[in-house]
Amino acid sequence: MTEPHGDAAARQQPTGQAGLLPTADGPAIRGALGALLRSARWLAAGAFLLMLVATGLGLLIPPLLGYLVDLVAEQRAADTIVLPVLLILGIAIGQGITTAVGLTRLARLGEGMLAELRERFVRRALHLPLERVEQAGSGDLTARVTNDVSMIADAVRNALPELARSGLTIVLTLIGMIVLDWRFAAVALVVAPIHVLTVRWYQRHAVPLYAAQRVATGAQQHQLLDTVGGAHTVRTFRLGTAHVDKVRTRSTRAMELMLRGVRLVTGFYNRLNFAELLGLSTVLITGFVLVQNGSATIGTATAAALYFHNLFNPINAALRLVDDAQVALASLARLVGVTELPPQPENTRTGQQLDPTIKVANVRHEYVPGQPVLRDIDLEVAAGQRVALVGASGAGKTTLAKLIAGIHAPSRGSITLGEVDLTERGPHAISDLVGLISQEVHVFAGPLADDLRLAKPKAADEELLAAVDQVGARDWVQALPDGLATVVGEGGHRLTVTQAQQLALARLILADPRIAILDEATADAGSAGARVLESAAANALAGRTALVVAHRLTQAAACDRIVVLDAGAIVETGTHDELVAADGRYARLWRAWSAPRPT
Ligand SMILES: Nc1ncnc2c1ncn2[C@@H]1O[C@H](COP(=O)(O)OP(=O)(O)OP(=O)(O)O)[C@@H](O)[C@H]1O
Predict the structure, then answer these.
(1) Which of 81, 97, 267, 507 sits most deeply, having the most CB atoms within 10 A of its CB?
(2) Would you say the pTM of this structure is higher than 0.90?
(3) Measuring from each residue's beta carbon to the nearest atom of ligand 1, which residues come in under 6 Å?
């Protein structure tokens, strides 16, 4: 009944929301749906055929009932009605069975397509450049994964089967009516313009409205995540009122759009009710006139009236579903918009074949345009070398580490890893050449062994234990209630920060990248944790080209070379001894670091 109007939805990017992820246009949605349908063509054909048979069988009942009415009107013998009654019974049973099987097939088709679409979306979303997600706000991505997927799931489970059934019933009933008596079919079309105009009116208003609703909900969720996620900072800087205002503005916008939706739906039903009233009156009057002048039997008029009854219910159902279909379509446009983003270039060479050198040339990076956090960075790390990045907090160490790991793309300049230019080929070109341990070490909920196998899915338990041993974690791992099978993370056995970092280092050993970048969270100097982690890191980095963001200067002193960053620029570089002798910034940092601490 409803033609996809994704084009209109695609245009729904209200001003001020320009950073949001893209929304697909009509042809892209049709293309994606076509591709999904093609991959399940036999299931689709089977479901369609069964629904066709079920609806066709249903159409035989009104003429048979009309025939029964004629038999009774002509006062025939009672036994003449046995056959038609049995036929009606058989048809009803046949229709019930074919409808049930057809709907099951249709459900399987819809769920399969939905699952495939969701997989594609997640696959694509996981590989989106981080800047793109940050620019859109993670709320946008979250809203698409949660709201939009559930809108489509609802449509697939409820609207799609009913829409298919209603569409088939309308078409076949109209054909049945023409065969029965064309005059009734002609009368049926009298109210059609009202339906057509109602649908047009509704679509004109609903598509932009629902797309705007999705955008407003995304913006509202993003704001809520921002405010709740940053609650600590919000409180520290007394930004509560400002944040509550922002949440209020976005919530009000979302609420206003919801209310406009309710008003629109009410108007839609008013028009449909009027059409139904008009249609029903016309049918009854026509039947009365035709039977009166003898040009139709009571049986035919009865069958025609029943056909009408058959027709108006699915028409209303189909038109009612326009609403769900529009909502689902706006959601679909937002899912397909992400799945259709151009894929990252494939990894053509494995990291193991590449020369593990790092070359950073003329790199500049800005998170906020016009505010560089790194400028004119030139750095080369030869194969097997271990280089430390040192500098005050905010100097840009983590940013440089992330650029080299391919997490962010530099605003300018080039980064070459193993002769592969990241800026040209994209970070996925070298994903298995480089491993990063960032400050946000995450322990995934589940058995410890699964957590380790993220880095090497096929590793045997012995291999996992060997890696755990190298990072000095064997003792505590074996002391866990179920050893490697112990459930850790959220809801399981809680690991200390040091233990989580040891696991991250063990994962690095298992993944075995030729270049390793270490940006561990700070551990107090001289603490047992720091000592354990330093020797674990030394083992994990053995034989690799390494860049270490040195939060403890003892880490830096153990490296082949030290690069000192200050306010986004490299200010010194050399070995520990050279830099101490030069008596510059590093020497000052070192003196401050190694000075006896008050106890
Ligand atoms: N995602 C981001 N968006 C905007 N600014 C950022 C972002 N990440 C870092 N910055 C800013 O970039 C500058 C450099 O930060 P970076 O984390 O690289 O420094 P760092 O030397 O690693 O500091 P630390 O030792 O405290 O981790 C800082 O001013 C920081 O506020």
Answers:
(1) 507
(2) no
(3) 367-368, 373, 391, 393-399
